[in-house]
Amino acid sequence: MKKKPLSKYDIEYENAVSCIFFFLIDYKKALKLIPKPFLPKHFFKNKALAVLSFYDYPKSSIGPYKEAALAIKSRHTLEEESGFFVVNLPVTSKEAFIKGKKYWGFNKTLENIEVYQSKKNYHARIFNLRNKNTLEVKSVLRFGFNLRYRDTLLFSLKNKRPVKSRLQTNGMGKLFLFSRFRLILTDKTNSISKTIQSLELDKKQPFLSFISNKYNAQLLEAERIS
Q: Were both Cys, which of 71, 150, 190, 204 would link to 134 (CB 3.0–4.6 Å)?
């Protein structure tokens, strides 16, 4: 990752940990969740790609926090490169919540998140500020191989205008081709739970899983797409 000086809008992360689950979903269902001028990226047999991911940031330029994300692989007609439109983004830090909404337009909510990881097991839990469970993910990961963590282009709407931002990463991870996966929805009225139900992720198995430990990253300032 080629590092540049932080602007007041960039966020820098050190020793971050993430787990990302990849799902093939129905294109028409994805289309209902993506606001124009963005569109889901079309894959074979009328499929789109969704990711459900969890992040632990023990050290960042805005303090430690955790977050979860549900995003859909998308494109913009004025952009050659496809990215991910972030549909839901629960976070545990008030500062991350405020900055994410103000500077990137992310659909952030303030929640509690716990993650547990061993060599082959991953467990994550989202629960609200009253300690009521929203969802749990339990996964047993198998047959992994090392892979470099790739930079990611993110799409969002800031003040109703399309913007893009880049998450630059520096680190390695492990890609798992097979995993046992269970997603348990407890509070089906929560915003991320509603998205999961609309895409039927609670009834699916991910076709890929990716875990990365102790990587560094930098979320760059959002740029308007024009």
A: 190
